[in-house]
Amino acid sequence: MSSIITIPNLLTFLRMALIPVFASLLFYEYIGLALLAFIIAGISDGVDGFIARRFKQESELGTIIDPIADKLLMTTAFIILTLPNILQPQHRVPFWVTAAVIGRDVLIIAVAGAINIMTGFHGFKPSWLGKVSTLVQVGAVVLILFAAVTGYGFFLPVTYFFVVLLAFISGFHYIFHVARLMKEAEKK
Fold first, then answer.
1. 81-109 burial, b if ≥16 CB within 10 A, otherwise e?
2. Where are the alpha helices (DSSP H) in the chain?
3. pLDDT value at position 178?
4. Residue 161 · residue 96 · CB < 8 Å
5. Any idea where the domains of the chain sit in the sequence?
6. pTM, whole model, 2 decimals?
7. Distances 151 to 5, 73, 155, 156 between C-alpha atoms, Å
8. Mean per-residue pLDDT, 144-171
9. 24-58 pLDDT, tens per residue?
10. Which residue in 31, 137, 149, 184 has the fewest CB atoms around it within 10 Å?
11. How does 39-54 read in b/e, with b if 16+ C-beta sit within 10 Å?
């Protein structure tokens, strides 16, 4: 039971609980509060990882639910920010950006699932490039919401470019990352 109820896992559960709050705030056009909820969720992601490593509170459950929470939060954010009538048209995320973000996650899940079914391998770990991509996505959502609150969005096209670029690069990089992890596991 102690490996389930750890501070990092509780922070991950908090992040998951904030997803419907964030989505509802966006839907009902409380953009400033949605930005605050998203920032809290984003900070909880960094803090839970730091605490887990620093205080040796890593758990098998945490390694499973943390990336799930990240994917759920980012997928929810990009889908809602793409929907019509949520943000002003100049701040709405273009569909191609959301498709790239979700496509990357689908690629990673499909590759991991196929490898697991074919080989039984389950030692999947995030790559450093995948972490950078997720960090850029989190920053992008903050910038998009900031633009919606303040009206300043001149930086959004560059933001979208970097989100899509890192989604593509990190998605394909993950295939090679997993191949390396599998080779390392065979040597053990």
1. bbeeebbeeebbbeeebbebbbebbebbe
2. 7-27, 31-54, 60-82, 95-119, 128-150, 156-187
3. 87
4. no
5. 7-187
6. 0.92
7. 42, 24, 11, 11
8. 96
9. 999 999 999 999 999 999 999 999 989 999 998 98
10. 184
11. bebbebbeebbebbee
Residue for token pair 């470019």: 161
Amino acid at the residue 60: E
Is the Cα dihedral 130, 172, 106, 111 positive or negative? negative
Total residues belonging to the chain = 188
CATH number of 7-187: 1.20.120.1760
Q: Is 127 left (phi over 0), alpha (psi -120 to 50) or beta?
A: beta
Enter the tokens of residue 118. 């074919």
The 8-class DSSP code of residue 94 comes to P
Cα distances (angstroms) measured from residue 28 to each of 7, 18, 32, 83: 31, 15, 11, 13
